[in-house]
Amino acid sequence: MDMDIPLPDELELLESDLHLYEDYLEPEVYEIEVDEEKRDKESSGSPILQSNSPDFSSAALNSVTESSSENGLKRLRSDDADVLRDSVLDDVEPSGGKRSRTDKPEVENEEDWLRYLPPTENNSMAEEETNLAVKEKTVFRFVSEIDGDFIPITAPDSDERVYVKLSRSGDKEESKKLDLKERHGGIMQENINVLLERAEKEALTKTLEASYDTQLDAMPPQEPVMHERLWVDKYSPSSFTELLSDEQTNREVLLWLKQWDSCVFGSEIRTTSDEVLSSLRRHFSMAQHHKLSSLSSTRKNKFPGWKAGNFRDSTFSDNKEGTTEGIQDTWSKKSRLPSPPEHKILLLCGPPGLGKTTLAHVAAKHCGYHVVEINASDDRSSSTIESKILDAIQMNSVLGDARPNCLVIDEIDGALGDGKGAVDVILKMVSADKKAERENGSKDQPGKRSSKKGQRSVSLIRPVICICNDLYAPALRSLRLVAKVHVFVQPTISRIVSRLKYICNQEGMRSSSAALSALAQFTECDIRSCLNTLQFLYKKRETLSAEEVGSQVVGQKDISRSVFDIWKEIFHTRKLKLQSRSVSKSRNTCDKLEHLYSLLSYRGDYELILDGIHENILQLNYHDPVMHKTVKCLEMLEVSDLMNQYIMQTHQMILNVYQPSSIITIHRLVAQVQRPNIEWPKSYQRCRALVLEKMENLRSWHCRVPPLISRHINSKTFVEDLVSPLLHIISPRTLKPRAMHLLSEKEKDDFTQLVNVMVSYAISYKQIKTDPHSNSSRHEATLDGSVFALDPPIDGFVCFKDYESCHNVLALAVKQLLVHEVENKKILQGSNGKLEPLSDAKQVNHEGTRDKSSKGGLTKTECVALSAKNNTEGQKSYSTQHHPSTSTSASDGNSAPGVNLKSSGVRKNPSLGSSSFFDRFRKPGSKGSQTTDSIDKKEITLQRDLRPLLFKFNEGFTNAIKRPVRVRDFLL
Amino acid sequence: MLWVDKYRPKTLDQITVHQDVAQNLKKLVNEQDCPHLLFYGPSGSGKKTLVMALIRQMFGPSADKVKVENKTWKVDAGTRTIDIELTTLSSANHVELTPSDAGFQDRYIVQEIIKEMAKNRPIDSKGKRGHKVLVLNDVDKLSREAQHSLRRTMEKYSSYCRLILCCNSSSRVTEAIRSRCLNVRINGPTEEQIFKVLEYIGKKEGLQLPSGFASRIAEKSNRSLRRAILSFETCRVQQYPFVSNQAIPPMDWEEYITEIASEIMKEQSPKRLFQVRGKLYELLVNCIPPEIILKRLLYELLKKLDAELKHEVCHWAAYYEHRMRLGQKAIFHIEAFVAKFMSIYKTFLISTFG
């Protein structure tokens, strides 16, 4: 049962011993003899095995496959009648222990049971155990265990590999024998009944085969039909070792598939696969050590306390056979927690014809899966695809093939509308899985887990391989994030040529290596197209020459390339071979131009191509002493631009055919042998985006500026004439950060003027968070990490790279003051515009606030006895009621322009009406008396007004209430 | 308020720079028969001021009461309806707008606004049906379609409204429109005129003007009155009392172009061209119109160039500007000009100095 050690081990080994991998071809040939032997003994076996042998003619092969599959079915049916044990053994037998893993789940149980039975129960088991003991010394699974020379031996049917020690020459023979024994171990152990039955079956098969053969002989016209089988199918690799694609990719795909083993195949595989997984996760050397120790020790005490702590508390009723040993318990529990790989989906992408589909099929088959393929020819609407995927993932076929399914979704990028259904379904499953995992991670209670089990059923429990050509297709965007992505690279030409050569030899077609390599190059290593071309030629003329390949239209692909490839093609020229004569040279250039033309017109996106050229052209290293080439290239770009514009305006798309010509001209001018370093054209788009943004800023600002001014400005004049002086004007050097009352009269005037300008141009400062990278903040970084920036950021219009503008930046204190003043002024203007009728009291209020704000605007008292100065002012404004003219003259004398406006408003309005809120409470009679005998009371009032008592009502919402009122107004 | 706005003449009588034009316009309006008008001239010459004064002359002070509106037009264009948003200034008697802001949809604006105005005509004080005035800015930026649609509507609704068109260059206004309007050319003010205006402002502000200072500003202003007044005020803010040799702060973008020009003169190679491209992008990013960049660049280059090359360089500048206007991506064309200049200059250097 040592044969149960699965492939992941081997894979890991391969990782470490790359060079060994190349050796396997030799032993394979050697092994074939063994295989023949085996075949004689065995019945027809599996179809894979047959197609593997290359010397079979296709016709025979086909018939054999057919008959064998029939046979297999028959055999199974007959097996049904047999006792259970027999069938089990029969299942185990044909391919040795290796195959058993790939069998139905029921078989797994049986095997489990087998393994854990004491050796005394089964004689054959005991026998094998002894065999094992001998074998351990000579045949190894790991190179690391061998300290001398060794030979890797691979069996062609199962691809299992063992390493045979070479240190003792005598042992070699023995080891081979042992190896043989390993293969046929199952047969030896069978009882006579089974063997007899086998012999009977064999006879039946042979007769069947014979009948087929005679049929074929009898009907010769059928032969050419068989012969016309496409070479592509005929020679498609059927085993992992035959794959042409990049080995790194192959191995990674295989490894990924192997990671599913634990989840798909249950515990019997887990013994090692878990170990591999854990070792993969850990450090390599650690893993190595671990493996060694585990092998040296006996199986039973391999993982004495392996994660036991995690599972001990979980109450699981063991639904296996009931073997309740401690170790077994943990194993079975583990099987309840299958751990599929991190990425549940594998996304293979690459250009057509490199063998993606083949790899997926072969790898899946190799790992013992039954491949279910969904491709573009199937109905892929989301409803049907969902049921299909669910079927594939959750069901197993009852008849015949009992292997678990592996879903291969081919051409997933192909159909955008319908193909999206598949992507969505898969994503849904993955996300459901993730959710379940998260739940599991957060709550490790057993109760939760059982409820989660229902959810699990919808999630992915079988490997899914998606295949696409264009990784960056929009439909795959979301899939890309969750899937493990493998990009196929072109295999080397030599590899392809050797394969082609082999096929040519097989088919009896004469061909030269040069011609084949030319063909491979021409088709860009597309093996499918190579083979198709070859077959076509074979039918036609039976020869292939290097010159023909170029001239032949067959096999030429019109794939659209990525725009980067096109830029590369434009800037890059291949070195012409020295031996090419002048005639062929001219033809060559002609061909190249044609090629470029077709490339460009397939792609079509001329504007982007031109942008890319423009972005990169000056970075090239072409020889250009007086810049003639550059001028010419830019001229070509201009022409293209003009053409583009014309086409866009007139919608004459047909003119697009002339677009590539200018690009080809550029190619002729600047193409270099050395590889260009190409960047994506960002700057033009960036420029456009920024311009739009700034224009938007400008427009919104323009709307806020009063129409009297804004009508004279448009965006052009703004940036051309206005910005620079305006910035100078609003940040005068003469303005010192000083308190208001310390400013001289002239400075005060300047300040008011400045505030005026800022208000009329709707400019202010606003607080923003400091951006440590911005240039301006360096001057004025404050402690609290915020700075004042211009509110419509008009200073952005004069900031150029590498240019130091000489604009003065105001000090922070000044800015704060300005912000405050501008706000005040705005409110003032607003109220001025809206509240037309202004009363005396209102004016007092304003005067008061103005004075206060001019002193810093910080003192705010609720019931204030105003100072003497205010007092006189108040008196004056009080007298406004009777003598409007004096009031205006008085306030004109000592007020800023803002107040001017206001007082003019007063002048206009008839101030006699009691428009103030508080005026209503006054007794009209007393007012009248005041007017009549004003001369008498004048002195008294004057006396009283020296120290007026003001009342300010601070609640309420309007300015009509919230203002200081003299107490005497209430008293009168 | 800046001085530019503060000392802007409000009525036709106050206008000093284009006095003759103002008087003619006054006569025109007083005779009650105002044709469509097309004002054209360089920026900063006072077109808009003149137009505003004219409107005030027509309708009196009520024309000053303007409201700003962000209007949205719903236009039925064949199968679908387009929403176009545009800012308009309107008083009771006139509407101002810049249709070219709507981009390629300006055609619908032009048609819609005139029809709308025709629908609700104002009735003037004498009970007669008056007419409204529609002021269109930047007519030269209108698309050809818009100009064509304007041409028909102008005739059809001429009894309802008068059009006043403003533009920088009449050459990009179609012949048809030009022939339907009374064309008024507004020159850029001469340096003496600018000088006089500056002196007037100085007197009003009570400033001491040293001799020659105002004329220096006028000289530097590129015959744009707006710029002259703005830089005058900038000087005032920066340093007062004036000194006769006081530095007049330059426009930032002009300084930047000067830098570019000197870089071009220093070295001519694709590498340098690449650096220049970066700087040109900077200018474009800051919304400076490419025509102005090209013009200024030529101006700066010419200052440093030998006389015998000037003609050729000017020729190529014109050539590339023409292509730029036809094309779409301005950077291609400016860069092509720079490359051409580099090529010419380098060839010249090699031939002269070997």
Automatic annotation (TrEMBL), chain A:
Q: What is its main location?
A: nucleus
Q: Which GO terms describe its molecular function?
A: ATP binding; ATP hydrolysis activity; DNA binding
Fetch the SMART domains from UniProt: AAA
**InterPro entries, alphabetized:** AAA+_ATPase, ATPase_AAA_core, CTF18-RFC_complex, P-loop_NTPase, RFC_lid
Which Gene3D superfamilies is this protein grouped with? 1.10.8.60, P-loop containing nucleotide triphosphate hydrolases
Task: Quote the subcellular location field of this record.
Answer: Nucleus
- One BP term from GO: DNA replication
UniProt feature, compositional bias: Polar residues = 44-71, 868-894
In which family does this protein belong, per the annotation? Belongs to the activator 1 small subunits family. CTF18 subfamily.
Protein name from the UniProt record:
Chromosome transmission fidelity protein 18 homolog
The protein's organism comes out as: Cucumis sativus
From TrEMBL, chain B:
Query: Briefly, what is this protein's role?
Result: May be involved in DNA replication and thus regulate cell proliferation.
Organism expressing this protein natively: Cucumis sativus
Which coarse location class describes where this protein primarily resides? nucleus
State the signal peptide span: none
Q: What protein name does the entry list? A: AAA+ ATPase domain-containing protein
Indicate yes or no for the key word Nucleus. yes
**Which PANTHER family does the annotation name?**
REPLICATION FACTOR C / DNA POLYMERASE III GAMMA-TAU SUBUNIT, REPLICATION FACTOR C SUBUNIT 3
Task: Please describe the quaternary structure of this protein.
Answer: Heterotetramer of subunits RFC2, RFC3, RFC4 and RFC5 that can form a complex with RFC1.
CDD domains, per database record: AAA
Query: In this protein, which residues make up the domain named AAA+ ATPase?
Result: 33-192
- Output the Gene3D superfamilies linked to this UniProt entry: 1.10.8.60, 1.20.272.10, P-loop containing nucleotide triphosphate hydrolases (3.40.50.300)
Keyword Nucleus among record annotations: yes
UniProt lists the family membership as follows:
Belongs to the activator 1 small subunits family.
